[in-house]
Request: fold
Amino acid sequence: MIKIILADSELQLVPKYMWNHPSVRKNADRKHKKPGDILLDASLHHSAMRGKNEKNRMGRPDIVHAFLLLALDSIALKEYDVELYIHTRENKIITVSNNLRIPKNYNRFCGLMEKLLKDGKIQSEEGDVLMDVSDGDLKYLVEKIRGPLKKVVVLEPNGEKRRLNQVYSDYENIIFVVGGFPNGTYISDISKLSDEIISIHDEELTVWSVIAEILVHYELSEKGLI
Reply:
């Protein structure tokens, strides 16, 4: 089986020091919500983020949206054993049920994430928990889900060049860690929690391209085609 963690994801509610910025208040008023109850989004709040540290990587819920759309609709998840987790820059851990149907519309997705981060969980009409939030850093999450046999493989552009078919050939149970941010490197200390830090291509890839490669290679591995 494989488990995939989208780590250090840039998914957060607008921080308090931005609440009074005009772009934030305008967006909150449009949604009939308080400024602290809406997602930070670089495309809407870029002027509020100007001059702030790491402003070029914060406010990217679209990366989480792409990750969930791709992974939840993949053949690998439908037919084999895949678990999904999201870890955020604020050390929130989101556990995702494979029964979740994520909205394809981005605005509806943002509304769902705002509800999740405010209420702590999302439930189906039948009462099944589809997503829940808890506190914990990346190291805590890895230790919690690792177990005795799993190998932790971190994807990083400067890692050792490795093909995914080689990784699947070497290990049966893998936790993949993929960065949920647009540029830069991990905030979390990946060196202390990984068995391998690898790069799967000579050029830096988008997050969704890396996730797609992981899932397709897993499917092919399970079918004995690689």
Q: What stands out?
A: Residues 41 and 59 are 4 Å apart (CA to CA). The helical segments are 22-31, 42-49, 61-72, 75-79, 106-119, 138-146, 164-170, 207-222. The radius of gyration is 18 Å. The domain at 2-11+58-222 is CATH 3.40.1280.10 (Alpha/beta knot).
